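Please complete every field before forwarding. Incomplete forms are returned to the sender.

SECTION A: IDENTIFIERS
Entry label: holo-425
Bound molecule: flavin-adenine dinucleotide
Molecule representation: SMILES string

SECTION B: INPUTS
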Amino acid sequence: MRITIAGAGIGGLTAALSLHAAGFDEVTVLESVPEIAPIGVGLNILPNAIREFDELGVADRLLEVAVATGSLSYYNRFGSLIWNEPRGIGAGYRWPQLSIHRGRLQRVLLDVVRERLGPDAVVADSRVVGFENRAAGGVDAHVLRGDGSTRTVTTDLLVGADGIHSAVRAAMHPCDGGPQWNGLLVWRGSAWAPPFLDGRTMVIAGDRGRRAVVYPMSVPSAPGEPVLMNWAVARRVEVGTVPDRADWNRPADPERFLPHFADLVFDWLDVPALVRSADRALEYPMVDRDPLPSWTAGRVTLLGDAAHAMNPMGSNGGTQSIVDGRVLARALVEHADPDDALLAYENERRPPMTALQEANRRMGPEVVIDLADERAPAGFADVCEVFPHGELARISASYATLGSFDPDTVNSRPSNAVQRWDTPA
Ligand SMILES: Cc1cc2nc3c(=O)[nH]c(=O)nc-3n(C[C@H](O)[C@H](O)[C@H](O)COP(=O)(O)OP(=O)(O)OC[C@H]3O[C@@H](n4cnc5c(N)ncnc54)[C@H](O)[C@@H]3O)c2cc1C
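SECTION C: PREDICTED COMPLEX
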């Protein structure tokens, strides 16, 4: 079976590896950019996705270029601790959570795809711009190159893993409303800086109008050496028309936005100083996509942000795009008819992803920062005066259950590893 994937991001590359591991050997990834560069900033990848990487034999290579996240701490704007929880192994998972640079993650996946599927498995400068399902089965994908030339790729299945602005999604759902903005502007970047706290903590601090997210993505090469630190600061400006896409990811002058974060200076972390020490800051509106009524049309389906772009709360967008590819590969092995397989994949993945998209519109687990600010705008001496016993733990646990990434589910659910019957062992 020929399978064509549009997009060599985290989701598309993992899908390629998953399909190959399941015994599909005619898998091609079409990527729009002429050269895949290690762009992006930090990602936290949750243990449910690291389990998939472990079963694909990639986790060890990722661990070499990442930090095993030890804990997640929420603070109010005065630096008072609202909630701290262990993450990964310390939280009882059999797999770690990783803090990693997106470019490093993509590079490892790209290398492994080329090693296993062949050097030509990923074809750059190939933008999928539309498709047509064929009456006799299969699909024609229309591809545009940078020089303006076009070609048609005929394939048995097309997987749209082409991100939040997915062309495959647009062709499937032409009336879909486009990216939705929640009124937060985000500035993000990375900088070499001394580790803080235990060197493995992800910190989220702020109030109802602002957020700072900071975590290390590397360990020091020697005692006293700096680490690569991810930072993002966000500020609510308005809700309304999403800023023009041409203005997304544009470089921004920190002196223009840092006055809004000047007070986020704690004994152990100086957010403005960290931002100033970065090479550059990129500005980005916090956008998601509306949940879709379906991900599949004929022999075409969606995966990752193309299917379920969500506001970046709770470290789920990339994490879930990894799981998508694994479930898709399993469904294609478990169902002889590809139509049944795509339906099974969608039925398994779409409901929980819709629930996560909706939860993230309510700020996901980060809602504890809003609640702390709402209930104690002048700060607190004792967090127990602000949150009744058990409330914070319940918020965290119910979010994990919603996305099926609580420790019990991740540790004990059946594996997604499968093999086609005709694949040599
Ligand atoms: C501020 C911020 C913080 C985040 N933090 C986290 C986090 O901590 N943890 C987490 O899990 N997620 C996080 N995310 C979300 C995460 O980045 C995305 O969910 C993830 O990258 C989606 O992967 P993807 O492969 O679906 O899409 P993408 O990574 O967008 O990849 C899509 C690929 O398709 C290519 N492409 C685009 N159009 C076409 C086309 N027409 N034809 C062919 N190729 C095409 C693109 O060039 C790209 O290579 C964050 C997002 C933001 C904005």
